[in-house]
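Lecture 7 notes: from sequence to structure.
We start with the chain below.
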Amino acid sequence: MRVTLGTTDYPDSGNTFLTGVYAQITSMSRTGSESCNSVPPPPGLTGDPGLGLWDFPGAIANGNREATSDWSFGSPTFSRFTFSGRILAQEFNIFSVTPAGSEPFIPSSTATQRYNTTIVFVGSNAVYANKDAGLTFVASDGAATPVNTLPANATSLSYDATSGFIWFTTSTAVGCASSNGLTVRSTPWTGAGEPRAIVADPIVHTRAWFVDSDPTTPKVGSVTCTAGPGAATLGASFTPGQPADVDRVPSFVAVGTDGGWPGFLYVTNPTVSKVFVHAADGTYDHTWSFAAGSCSKLMNIIDGPGGNLWLTSPTTGEICKLTPGSTGFMTSMGNVSAPQQTGPMAVDSLGNLWAIWGTGSATAKVVRMDGVSEAFTGYSLAPSAFSTTTYSLASGGGAIWATSVDSNAYPGSGVRRLVLPTWP
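Predicted structure tokens for the same chain:
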């Protein structure tokens, strides 16, 4: 049977809405009539989902006031039966759900930590790289522990949970660190420019990819580490695109895992609406392009919801989608309102996409895109007394973590913790 759930009386607002709505049967009058099409239980759900559990995607997110779900039951005797249950939903407000004891803004530990350039989530800690002072581990209760073994001028981080490596770039080197940051291995980069935007390879866990945006000799490079971590070694590198391309300078690289193109590399360009696709050995495969005037000057790219690749355009403020396939399907998802600079992205535990939108304390926002409906909601970050810029995002520990950079006063640099809802 088809069930429609209406939520027309819920006082939806710009910062509060219901998402992740489920119906769960808690008791049933007859054995054998349990659901035939229950969905997997979400993390943290209490009670036995075996009698029946169905989801209502996007039931009250972003103005969608009702949703439907198809329920199927076993009926060996075709006789009547009754059941009772409950509706579960997450009321989501990133400003009111921060638990007691957690600060919405966690400042840097010392006066030298001003440039918090990149952040990842490792185990039970958010870990951000500071251009002045290595790594800082931040626990969910806000306790910060600096670990200064990383070489100076760290510019990007990526984490691989399988290998336990924190991959990093500095202004002159690339390498890996252990998950506690105490063991570090690096090797000098031999390209003409600075290595940046490193990303762990989700298929070959001992390898990471990065870009060198030198305008004369642009490169996509790789680095490998052995267990331990052992020695860091430079691997294959290549110039993205084809010789006939006017601009081959890379901005970011992603490794595909879905859509029939696993292991292929997707390289964005900061001046054209193109994505260069290469095999893992660097061999050029093809180029995917956006329509003229759409998603220009592409920057960040990640493997995200729906088996798609997601990109941001700092010029138009758009979030863009690339669906891998034989020809590729690329489209703009639009922006929240007026064009603003969009930046790094992260995917939360519920499959929703988050992106930085806007710059500075006056305009900084975080965009949330529902992983099912692909609709946007924008949130202003908590006000700051400092002229800070939101720089990077990470997901983990039931929260979205955002770094804040202030080049003038270190108390304005640190991380913000936007807590996600949990099931009762």
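Points to note: Residues 39 and 54 are 6 Å apart (CA to CA). Residues 9-15, 93-104, 382-388 have pLDDT under 50 and may be disordered.
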